[in-house]
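ok so for the tutorial part 2 we go from a plain amino acid sequence to predicted structure tokens. step 1 is just haveing the sequence, like this:
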Amino acid sequence: MWYKRHECGLRMAIFFSAATAAGAFGGLLARGIVEMKGVGGLSGWQWIFILEGIVTIIVGMFLSLTLTLTHTLSLSLSLCL
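step 2 — the prediction. this is what the tokens look like for a chain of 81 residues:
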């Protein structure tokens, strides 16, 4: 296990809280993006796909450069152990 026993509860609480917040704000963000209908000749749903796709590609490129293959190669995790 990568995390100590007393750290797991906090990590899971943060994860599920972030999932709840993402669900709450995702709808509001989608509603705002849908209002862009007609901009650039695209519908609102097309803007949602474009913007979410751009964010996904950028995050994927960033994480592919920063994540390590295993936890033993990570400098930050090695310092905690």
